[in-house]
Each structure stands twice: as C-alpha cells, then as structure tokens.
Amino acid sequence: MAQASAQLLFDESGQPFIVMREQENQKRITGVEAVKSHILAARAVANTLRTSLGPRGLDKMLVSPDGDVTITNDGATIMEKMDVQHHVAKLMVELSKSQDHEIGDGTTGVVVLAGALLEESEKLIDRGIHPIKIADGFDLACKKALETLDSISDRFPVENRERLVETAQTSLGSKIVNRSIRQFAEIAVDAVLSVADIESKDVNFEMIKMEGKVGGRLEDTILVKGIVIDKTMSHPQMPKEIKNAKVAILTCPFEPPKPKTKHKLDITSTEDFQALRDYERQTFETMIKQVKDSGATLAICQWGFDDEANHLLQANDLPAVRWVGGPEIELLAIATNARIVPRFAELSEAKLGTAGLVREITFGAAKDRMLSIEECPNNKAVTVFVRGGNKMIIDEAKRALHDALCVIRNLVRDNRIVYGGGSAELAAAIQVAKEADRIDGIEQYAFRAFADALESIPMALAENSGLAPIEALSDLKAKQIETGNSFLGIDAVFAGTNDMKEQKVIETLLSKREQISLATQVVRMILKIDDVRVPDDEKMGGY
Amino acid sequence: MMRPPIILLKDGTENKQGKGQIISNINACQIVADSIRTTLGPRGLDKLIVDSKGATTISNDGATILKLLDIVFPAASTMVDIARSQDAEVGDGTTSVVVLAAEILKQMKPFVEDGVHPQLLIRAIGKACEKALKYLADLEIKISGAGELREMLVKCAATTLSSKLVSQERQFFANMVVDAVNTLDVNLPLDMIGIKKVNGGNLNESRLIKGVAFQKAFSYAGFEMQPKKYSNVKIALLNVELELKAEKDNAEMRLTNVTDFQAVVDAEWNILYDKLQKIHDSGANVVLSKLPIGDVATQWFADRDMFCAGRIPQDDLDRLMAACGGSVLTTVSQIDDSVLGKCGKFYEQQVGSERYNFFEDCSKAQACTLLLRGGAEQFIEETERSLHDAIMIVRRAKKNDSIVAGGGAIEMELSRLVREFAREIEGKDQAFWMAYAQAFEVIPRQLCQNAGLDALDILNKLRHRHAQNEKWAGIDIHREAVGDNLAACVWEPSIVKRNAITAATEAACLVLSIDQTVKNVRTPSGGAMPGLPGQ
Predict the structure, then answer these.
(1) Beta strands A506-508 and B516-519, pairing class
(2) Which residues form the signal peptide (chain B) (predicted)?
(3) Closest partner residue to A102 among B47, B71, B201, by Cβ?
(4) Beta-strand pair A263-265/A416-419
(5) What is the C-alpha to C-alpha distance for residues B62 and B80, in angstroms, rounded to an integer?
(6) What is the dihedral of CA A138, A139, A145, A150, to 10 degrees?
(7) Residue A9: its chain B contacts at CB < 8 A?
(8) pLDDT tens-place values along chain B, 535 residues long
C-alpha cells in the first residue's frame, strides 16, 4: 500500500526521524488508491438515497441518538440526519444541502447523479485516464447538457394558477402527503402567490409561517391568510372571538417601568410604602387607559404581565395576549399594518393594526387552543396550519410543503420549465452522447460516461416504480430518438402514457440545471484529490 | 588514568552534527517538497487533509497545505517558512518555491557527500542566483498602454487560476479579479476587496459587486417592516450602541422618593430617543452600527421608514466607508449631512439561503465585494484561496508591469543561460553552477509528471528548442506538447519568479549552512513534576 511512505523514515545513519507532528498517527492514502476510496465512499452514500427517488420512492426511517424518529424521503433531510463520518461522504451531504438552500427541491436527484458520475469515472480511471482529464471532459459535457436543457425548456404561464398547482403536485407526488395532493398543492401555490413580490421576482419565505398540531387528518390542513399563534387570551373570561379588532402590538411589559441601571429604592416609612403601592396601581391604570384611549380592542404583548395586571385588563374589558415571540410579533405587525410600540406613552390610533376576525380555535377533546388572526388588511403574511395523526407525519408534511413552496418560488423567479420523469435527463444524455462522437481526444470517453450517468436518473425512477429498468429505459430512449420528442419519460405512476407533458409532470429548469452543474462540480473536486491525510482512529485509540 | 566524562547537555538532548546532519536535513526538506510536489501546474491534484478535530481542507495551495501538515523537523520548517514568505510577498508560486528549493538541495547533496565544504557551495549558488536574476531582468517583457495592461493582468490571473479547482471558469474569474483590483486606489489595499461566500448555487453565479455587500445581521422584531430598497441612500455609520442600556456596572442609584422613579426611567428613555432623533434629523435613511441596535431602536426606525442593521463587522464597515465616504462616528451629537456616506442604490436580496444587503453605485467606489457561490463549503473555501492568489498576482503585476512566460519556459531559459555562463568559470565552482542550473529544470519536469507526460522526452525537446534560441518555448499541457508559451498567453509576472528564485536559493543556503542541531528534551507535560525528588 502506498500509505507506508508517510510513516517512519530513516536517515543515512539508520536513525528514524520525524518530520511531521504525530505522523505515526496519520493515515495517508495517495494516488489512484485515494481517488478510488473516495469514489467508493461517495457511491455508498448515493446508493442509500437511490431508492427514495421519484413518486414511487420509499421513505427512510432515521433514529437520532436521543431516540427522535424521523421518517422522510427528502434527500437533504436524510443526508443531514445520517451523520456521516467519512470526509468525502460529507461532501455529498453538503452537495444536497447546497441544492436544498438554493432550490429546495431535487436534493435526492443531485446526489444520485453525482454517485453515477463517480461510478462512471471509476471505470475510466481503471483504463488509465488522468482524473483531471475526466473532470475536464465532464465539465464540457455538463455545458452541453445544460445547453440541451435550455433548448428543450418551455415557458411556463406563471399567471395560470391551475398550471402552478399541477407543478406543485409533481413535487408533492413523491411525498407522504400524496393522498391529498391537490389540496396541498393549492395551499402551496396560494401561500407563495400571496407573499410573492412579482415585480422583483423575490419571495420572502419568512412571511410564510408553518404551524403544526397533532390530531385530525392531513386533509384538515388549511392555509390561513393571516397568522396563527400557539397562544391564548391571557384571561379565561376574555372573549373568544373579536370582530373588526384594533390591535395594539406592544413590546413593553405591563408592569411598572424599571430603569436598566442598578437601582435601589429606600423605603423608610409606612407612608413611603403606601406611596409605592399607589404608584404601582396608578401605572397599571394609566397603561390600560392609554391602551384604551388609543382605541385598541386587543392588546398583543411580547412580554408577560402579572395576575394583577391581568385582572385589571379583564376588568377593563381589554382582551390581551401575552408572551408572543419576536418573529410572530413581526408577522402580526406586517399582516395587520400595525406599528410595534415600545412604550405605552407612544400609543396612538395611527399605530394600531386592524384584523377582521380574531378567534380562538379549539381542537378535539384536548384543551389545545390557538389564536388565529384573520382577514388582515395586508395579505403578505400567511400561515399554513398542518394537521396530522402524529408528529412525524406533520414534520414530513411540513418538509413536503416546503419543497413544494420552493418549486413555486423558483417558477416565480424563472418561468422556464422542463418535463420530469427522467425525460429531461434522457434528452440531455442523448445529445451529450451524440456530441461525444464529434470530439477528438480522450475527453470523448468522459463525454460518453457523462451521458451514461445522466441515464441513471430515469433508470432509478424505473427501478423504484417496479418497472424492468433496462427494458423501460431502452424502450424510452429508442422512442425519444425516433420521435425527437423530449417529453417522453418514465411512466412511474402507471398513468398509461409516457408523454410527461400530458401527464403534467413538470420540473423547473433552474432546479435541473443546478442539479447537473452542482453534481459535476463536486465530482470534479473529488476526482482532483490524490493525497489524503487523516488522523488514524485505530492508532489514536478511537473506535 | 580515568578521565571523568564531561556532561555538557542535559540527558536526552538530541545532538546531531557534521556531514550526516546536513544530509539528513536535506532529506527532510525533500520529504516536505514531495508532499506538495503533485499540486504543481494545471494538472496538479489536490490534497485533502483532515485535522485531529475532523475539519476537512481540500487545497492545491502550497502554503496552505504546508501550514496544515504541522511540520516539526527543525530544518524542514524552513521550507514552510519560504512558502509562507512567498505567500505574503507575492501570493502565488508557493508550491514552486518549495519544489525549487528542495531541488537545489538535491543537486548539492552529492557534493556534500563527496566532502565539499558547504560554504563553497553556498558561495557558488549565491553568485549563480545573482546571475540568474540578472538574466531574468533581461528577459522580462515590459507591458505598457492601458488596454494592454488590462489584458496582461487578465492573462496573469488566468495563468494562476489554471492550476486551481476553478480552472474551467478561469477567464470569468480572471476578468472579475482584474475588475476588482482596478476599483482600488493607488495603494491597492487588499482588505478593500471583500470576499463573501454563500453555499449553494453555481460557480458562475459568483459576481463582483462594485460596492459593498454583507449578510443580513441579526435583527429584532420590526426589522421586516423596514423598507429594503432605497435610491440615493444616505448612510450613517456608527460605533454607537442604540439600546436601552445600563450605565457602567458599578453605577448604582439610590432613590428616596417614589416619584423619582418615573423620572429616572424617563431619563433613560430620553437618552436613547435623543440619539435616535439626531440620527433621523441628519437625513440618514440607512443606519449601520458596529455595536448592537436594540429592538426599541429597530422599531423606532421602522416607524420612520428607515433601515438599520447592528453588529456589522468592522471590515465591512471600513469597506463601506471607503466606498461611500462618510466616517464612522462614535457619538451622534455632531451628526449631520457631511459625515454621512452616500451611495446610489441600496437593496436587500436573497442569495442562496442567506439574505444580503447590497450597497451599489457608491460615490467614491474604492472598494468592492466578491460574492462567491459554489456547491460545498470546502469548494468555496478553495475558490476563495484561489482568488486570493489571483488577486495578489494582479496587485503585484499592476505595480510591476513586466511579465515572463510560464509553463516552464522561463525556468528552461534561465537554466540554459546559467549553464552557458558556467562553462566559462574556472575551478570546481563550475560544477556547482552547473548543478544549480540543472535545478531549474525541476519545474518543467514536475509539470510533465503531474500531467502524466513523458518528462524525459518533453524536457529534451525543450532543451533543443531553447538551444535554438526559442526562449519562450514551454510545455503546453492542453496539447501535451512543446509550444511558445508567450504566444499561448501563459503569462506570469516576473516578480513571482524573482521572489521564488531568491527565496529558494536563500533557503537552500540556510539548510546547507547548518551542521549541528541541538534539540532539547521536551519537558514532559502532565508527568512527574520536575524537582520533586523520589518520584
């Protein structure tokens, strides 16, 4: 093995000498050996995800060290929870994370593609081709594939809500929620459309809040145009429903103001004590008066207030909510057009927000209640309220919705699309393979390998759907070449047609482009490493 | 008669001396060079190093790798030092300097073994180095004219980047780097180029912002209500905490009267409100502070449609000051229009999963920001290092506008010239000079080896071409043949080579001049306390 070279060295007189600190504890792999071991590690990761691809992809169950169970088929989530140790496998994790951050969808596909590319490059390395040449060839092939994607892409009518819903359905198709797919798709579309800034093509996800509550069915999930907060009125006797509420949003506590500087109040006599009591009561009263005077019918407070204040509020007929978190306060302020008020003295009518309906919702037999603020003047903040049988389902539904939201957002950003079901990959593969014959030099081999790797996506789709993968793929490829129709893909849901345009399986061009270029990038990075130094766990006494 | 042994050094001290020591030092340097040798050139491969804490670094930069290797062998650490000095001085060529130094030592080793006095060697290679530098000065080509200068800079940057991970996009990045350096003022301060990294996205989505960009700072409630877009922005740069805050820790108030209580609270609020009002009155619409801006202030600004961000890192603030004018204030009492920074456009935008604040069309425009995108974290980090190298090269080349051809061309030519000169030297110095000349050939040879080419064949072709006076013949890696690298635009600033030759020669001299190492025993840590008898 090549790794012996880094270990002990002897000088001319036979004495060992040490050049690097703790070099005896380091594992070093160099040359082809290193590249191959990396490819192996990365492929192992890719293989884990392979079965999660597509509408018939299966879920993975992951148990964390503290016993938390996650069930998901979202690539990025699986990768994150797998907690991989190997340094190269970590790169694959980052790869899917990066796709998640940028696009939010297609996190499984990108890893599978990178795995396939590495698998192909291993064969080329065995033939003695320099890794960088392979990487160069892949880069060229990647450019060609992206060109092909551009040329087969379609413009998408973003104004058409129905079409958007269909797209969201593609993304949701592979997730746990596909039982009520239509409903979830509509929720996702409406949520994005209400917060999107069509002009600057920007969608601020912080304006979409997701709340989940165990109980009920997935079908009970709703989109609230407004805010749902997991809080109740501070006093049980306060009204449960307020119409046309005027909301005062306060970030100061209902208690006598205290200076921030350390202070001490010397009380020397009973009168003084009495005065203090009076002062406190007075402050409460002025506070409540100030709120009342401004015309507010509901006070929402970031901090708490003690029982005395609570009682006074109730007595003065002023419904209030306490301990509302910072981000929620912010969303509320935006939705109701209110200004956040840091001091009671600054309250005025102009700073109040309005909401058409504020009500407490109760759930089932449990005493769970939440406060929903609806019919707000500003539709820029919405809440998706997810229901489901257990926490895992809700979490998975949230993740699925997040993916769908991302897809819609990407369409708002860039309205070009390609068709799914592996059709786009296949079309790109055919073009890349065609181009390969025109290239002189060793890159030709890398080109062909790239085309083969692209085919692994429809192949995995077919496999996961229970089709005979090779048969289905070769059939499809022949059809695509024959008809020149790039919309033909794997019929994973047995809808009876291979035409993805007809099946309305749509993916954004942005996401596909990103997948291919990200995977190529990472593969290049892995291929370019020829020397690895890792602290040797066995010798360090680990494991 | 018995003489008592003389104990000079503490027991356990390593003490090596003589010829054996020099040779063992040379060997150690060789090993260091071996570990980074394969990173040289466009076909050089990267090294992946995992440190004991599990942090992974993937790099192709000689200085970075050597730093991570943690070398303890005393003589070998000179190799690390020259790589670092090259990095600090010119920023690129860190691998070549180490490889060159090791090769000079390797060429000198047989002489040391044969018993030549090291001082003779040192004197000879010192002189040979001087001569080589003189030849280099004769060979270098001056570039003049603004258009050509830019072209030269782009080519130099592209040559540097060709050996890095981003080599496919080198034209794109080379132009970007040159544009970035061109926005700077005459002193070319490096820290006025901000490099921001955002995971995700594609390499060629990286962009140059002529102005300043930084990540959205931590924000309090109310931030989302602030406008995120302005034109004709007036920026107040502060070093003031805008928060309700306690006076110094040791301050304490004693209140004797309940009515005072309210007064104190009001006073505290008024101090803050006064500050806020003054900022508002100055006409600023963007408020940035190095220190935190609290929730009260955030909401106050939101109320008046102003944008604010606290906890801005110092270097971003400095860049903003360079770009937009204005000055950082430590008090708001004197704030007025004249101290505000001004820029044409401010907006917030989502980049990957982060939100970024952009300041563009700045009034003074002497700072810029490179926003890098890329798949994995290590990928962006390596891109940053590569761009750093390229920026350094462009900076040096801009001040020192002469170039030479890379790809082994200049080394082969210097080797030939030094060798020719050596033939006229009398005495054994001639052999040393010849060996020194031979050492230069290591660069083209290593380039060939890394690319998987037949080094012997290519090197002979090169020697042949150079003997026929084709002084810019070098290796064309992409065609895998010998070609004219000046025409092929493989250009490097001559200062890189000059510095590399000087540093390598000096390091070689240093290693040769050591004939004894005394290494003290390391005090055992955690073991028995010294000075406690009986343990």
Answers:
(1) unpaired
(2) none
(3) B201
(4) unpaired
(5) 9
(6) 170
(7) 27, 31
(8) 667 777 777 776 667 777 888 888 888 888 888 888 888 888 888 888 887 777 788 888 888 888 888 887 878 888 888 888 888 888 788 889 999 999 999 999 999 988 889 899 999 999 999 999 999 999 988 877 777 888 888 888 888 888 787 877 888 899 998 888 888 877 777 778 888 888 777 777 888 888 888 888 777 777 777 888 888 888 888 888 887 766 666 677 777 777 777 787 788 788 888 888 888 888 888 888 888 888 888 888 888 888 888 888 888 888 888 888 888 888 888 888 888 888 888 888 877 777 888 888 877 767 888 888 876 777 888 888 888 888 888 888 887 778 888 888 999 999 999 999 999 988 888 999 999 999 999 999 999 988 888 888 999 999 999 999 888 998 888 778 888 888 888 888 888 899 999 999 999 999 898 888 777 766 655 444 444 444 3
**Which sequence positions of A are flagged as catalytic?**
74, 107-108, 403
Q: Output the CA–CA distances (angstroms, integers) from residue B165 to A329, B301, B382, in the order listed.
A: 46, 45, 7
Tell me the pLDDT band of A301, cut-offs 50, 70 and 90: confident
Find, in chain A, the residue whose alpha carbon is nearest to that of B69: A20
Q: B201 to chain A nearest CA, in Å?
A: 6
Which residues have C-beta within 8 Å of that of residue B211, sequence separation ≥ 6? B323, B324, B343, B358, B359, B360, B361, B362, B365, B367, B368, B369
Q: Check: CB of residue A55 under 8 Å from CB of residue A173.
A: yes
Using a CB-CB cut-off of 8 Å, the residues of chain A touching B168 are 136, 139, 524
Inter-chain touch A276–B256, beta carbons under 8 Å:
no
Contact at CB, B20 and A13, closer than 8 angstroms: yes
B chain contacts of residue A348, beta-carbon cutoff 8 Å: none
Cβ–Cβ pairs < 8 A, chains A and B: 228
Whole-Å CA distances, B140 to B95, B159, B440, B477, B498: 22, 16, 17, 22, 10
Other CB atoms within 10 A of residue A10 CB: 11
CB B265 within 8 A of CB A255: no
Is A528 within 8 Å of B165 when comparing Cβ atoms? yes
Give contacts of B 268-307 with A, CB under 8 A.
268-269, 295-296, 299-300, 302-303
CA angle A478, A482, A483 (to 5 degrees): 120
> Phi then psi for A27, rounded to 5 degrees?
-100, 130
The shortest C-alpha distance from A303 to chain B (Å) reads 13
Q: Given CB atoms, is A330 within the 8 Å cutoff of chain B?
A: yes
pLDDT surpasses 80 at A19: no
Cβ <8 Å between B199 and A98: yes
- What Cα–Cα distance (Å) separates residue A431 from each residue in A115, A515, A519, B157, B360? 21, 18, 18, 34, 41
In this predicted structure, the answer to whether residue A102 has a pLDDT above a threshold of 60 is: yes
Q: Which of A17, A262, A529 sits opposite B48 (nearest CB)?
A: A529
Q: The tokens of A16 are what?
A: 């060992």
Least confident of A122-136, A256-270, A480-494: A256-270
d(CA A294, CA A289): 8
* In contact, A138 and A524? CB cutoff 8 Å: yes
Q: Would you call B451 an interface residue with chain A, using a CB distance cutoff of 8 Å?
A: yes
Q: Which residues of B touch A272 (CB under 8 A)?
A: 258
By Cβ distance, the residue of A329, A531, A534 closest to B221 is A329
Q: Which of B251, B248, B243, B301 minimizes the C-alpha distance to B268? A: B243
User: In the block, which residue shows the tokens 């860039």?
Assistant: A414
For residue A279, give the H/E element and its range.
helix A270-294
In angstroms, how far is CA A88 from the centroid of its own chain? 23
CB contact under 8 A, B224 and A19: no
Is some CB atom of chain A closer than 8 A to the CB atom of B18? no
